[in-house]
Amino acid sequence: MKPETIVNKIWNKHVVHQEEGNPDLLYIDLHLVHEVTSPQAFEGLRLNNRKVRRPDLTYATMDHNVPTKNRDVIKDQIAQKQMETLKQNCLENGITLADMYHPDQGIVHVIGPELGLTQPGKTIVCGDSHTSTHGAFGALAFGIGTSEVEHVLATQSLWQDRPKTLKIQVEGDLGPGVTAKDLILAIIGKFGVKFGTGYVMEYTGKAIRNLSMEERMTVCNMSIEAGARAGLISPDETTVEFLKGRAHVPEGEAFELLAEEWLSLATDEGAVYDKTVVIKAAEVEPQVTWGTNPGMCVPVSGTTPDLSQVEHKEDVERALDYMGLVENQPITSIEIDHVFIGSCTNSRLSDLQKAAAIIEGKRVSDKVRAIVVPGSFSIKMQAEKEGLDEIFKAAGFEWREAGCSMCLAMNNDVVPPGGRCASTSNRNFEGRQGNGSRTHLVSPEMAAIAAVEGHFVDVRQFTGVLN
Amino acid sequence: MEAIEKHRGLVYPLNRANIDTDQIIPKQFLKRIERTGFGQFLFYHWRFDDDGNKRTDFSMNYPEYQNASILVAGDNFGCGSSREHAPWALLDYGFRVIIAPSFADIFYNNSLKNGIIPIQLDQEQVDQWMERAEKGTLTLDIDLKNQFIVDEADQKVHFDIPEYHKEKLINGWDDIALTLQHQDAISAYEGNLA
Predict the structure, then answer these.
(1) Cβ B83–A36 below 8 Å, yes or no?
(2) pTM of the model
(3) Domain that residue B159 falls in
(4) Inter-chain contact A315–B186, Cβ cutoff 8 Å?
(5) For chain B, what is the domain count?
(6) CB B21 within 8 A of CB B186
(7) By C-alpha distance, which of A262, A200, A270, A159 is closest to A8?
(8) Looking at the domain assignment, is residue B150 inside a domain?
(9) Is the pLDDT of residue A463 over 90?
(10) I need a surface site. Which of A390, B77, B80, B189 has the fewest CB within 10 A?
(11) Would you call A345 an interface residue with chain B, using a CB distance cutoff of 8 Å?
(12) What is the pLDDT confidence band of residue B194, given thresholds at 50, 70 and 90?
């Protein structure tokens, strides 16, 4: 048989209808829903007297709007209405909802894997661009708009052009103290924010194989920041091990059979990709973004760009100006006043453990306001069991309830105008964390040490990796 | 959605690359549960200052670009968040056509679902029209059916768009109604799964 990529294997299994000159009609195995991008879709169904075709393949939660403290008093009436609307829509259509007070509540891309809803080989969509996260499991997962949300609700399928495949081969090993976040930022920094447009990216190579599932999710999560709607990693024993025993995963013999099927999805030796790029893991250093898109990124040992050396000078100038920085400025000289540890990129238990290990016994700088927002209620509970909350609180961090929070600042967790935030999230766009806010994307470890020092430093200097 | 086959309109040039959907429609306006009324919030923080007054130094507020219905923008337009509120805001403001060297995938799709024509042209052509629209005003005639654009100097430029997207735009078809014609195929697929 012809060697195939995992993307084509999953695709071929999901084609419902195919005709020359048209996109394929693709079946969707799992549709995740949240409060912000769904109300207009449900309204569309109602106006046309249509029903949700497969409520059993649809799962909803509240994450974007939810307060991360004082949940009993929601001051934002419009946000409240949006959440009420989701509740009503789920009730009317028989869709399971993990609402704000539910033990399974959390960021949609955190709870999917946590509950075992996310599985290898599935087609997964959600009205959210970071749906690419689920690709870590070898699922074909991508973000869609609200019209497509409505389409999936009504038909459990989507018209899609077969994507091109882009192999990102990460050779060798990441250095000590270098994280999955640094890797994906370095990839975007090197190839830019649109090199993945039109492709599904598949991450391969030794460094990828050695990542935990949580680290793989961090990598796949940011595929969209490189322009790719989906990014994935072929399933292996790490994938199977992670899913074993999860709530929505079968047990016993059924699991063994399923696991075998999952492993068979991995890209075959010799499969052909439309494009391949290679990254040497050992060359990756801890990264910090300096500008207003995730591609504007350098190693922490670096500086902001030299305007005489850049290609798109106006864009760079504009970004530096917005960020309140100048050219050739050392990254370590940048002082911050906010730290956010959270988001669908970096809010999982291991992220919190790693950040806690850095700050244990230290104090957050007096100039810095720091918050930790666990990705789900379940992570929060587990972290508290391990005493991580106490470590964070003792250091001066605020410890919050689960949600998207300061990643996009739809709730009250906002960086004020001119404020500067070391953030473990995924987007440093203008105003992303609040109107006029300035965001620097980093790993949880780099965010934690920046909170203590009040400016960026190479975290490896504090962990004995670098002198 | 409203069908569109031909469009004649004034160009507004926005010469920035990588314009993300957070700029097109900032998050504080995503809490509404309607599809309409987003035009007033389009490019909100670029158009308005912190007190809600129009910024006089942002070109979209210049008198000559009022009533523009064709947006010419930089590379990778619409990157970032999947929010369909972005095309809703553009459409509600009055834009029916967007011309750029490239588009982000999700935004491109979202535009098509709302009767906006996203037209990808090479950088050189975009730059030429960008410059002319910046220096004076520029009106373009778009013929979707025949896939060309004509400017005031009678320059005729061809553009590519997949045939099925073109057909849907021209007819204003409802995607879901079309798909439901394949309901048997969907049921058969589900039957095989069971």
Answers:
(1) yes
(2) 0.98
(3) 6-193
(4) no
(5) 1
(6) no
(7) A200
(8) yes
(9) no
(10) A390
(11) no
(12) low
- Closest-CA residue of A relative to B163 is A21
Instruction: Reduce the DSSP state of residue A467 to 3 states and report it.
Output: coil
Residue A340 has pLDDT above 80, yes or no: yes
Q: What is the pLDDT of residue A75?
A: 81
Candidate from B31, B50, B182 with C-beta closest to A82:
B31
In a domain? residue B1: no
Nearest to A187 by CA among A276, A121, A277: A277
Q: Among A456, A459, A453, A458, which residue's Cα sits nearest to residue A367?
A: A453
CA-nearest residue of chain A to B29? A410
Q: Is residue B144 part of a domain?
A: yes
Of A237, A216, A233, which Cα lies nearest the Cα of A167? Answer: A233
Q: Which long-range contacts (CB under 8 A, 24 or more apart) does A379-382 make?
A: A379/A106, A379/A110, A379/A114, A379/A347, A379/A348, A379/A349, A379/A352, A382/A349
Query: Kindly report the CA angle at A99 between A91 and A396, in degrees rounded to 5?
Result: 170
| Residues 136-195 of chain A whose Cβ lies under 8 A from any Cβ of chain B | 143-148, 150-151, 154-157, 159, 161, 193-194
Residue B153 lies in a domain: yes
Residues in B touching A410 (Cβ below 8 Å): 27-28, 30-31
> What is the predicted ipTM?
0.97
Nearest CA-CA partner of A106 in A423, A401, A422 = A401
The answer, for B145 touching chain A at a CB cutoff of 8 Å, is no
- Residue B156 pairs with which residues in a beta bridge? B150
Chain A contact for B55 (CB, 8 A cutoff): no
When pLDDT is averaged across residues B127-138 and rounded to a whole number, the result is 97
Q: Which residue of chain A is at minimal alpha-carbon distance from B164?
A: A22
Chain A contacts of B175, Cβ < 8 Å? 147, 151, 159
Size of interface A-B (CB pairs under 8 A): 160
Distance (Å, whole) CA A24 – CA A17: 6
A268-to-A6, A51, A299 alpha-carbon distances in Å: 8, 40, 34
Tens of pLDDT, residue by residue over B1-60, are: 899 999 999 999 999 999 999 999 999 999 989 999 999 999 999 999 999 999 999 999
* Inter-chain CB proximity A147 and B180 less than 8 Å: no
Instruction: State the Cα torsion B60-B64-B67-B72 to the nearest 10°.
Output: -60
Which residues, listed in sequence order, are joined to residue A200 by a DSSP beta bridge? A165, A230
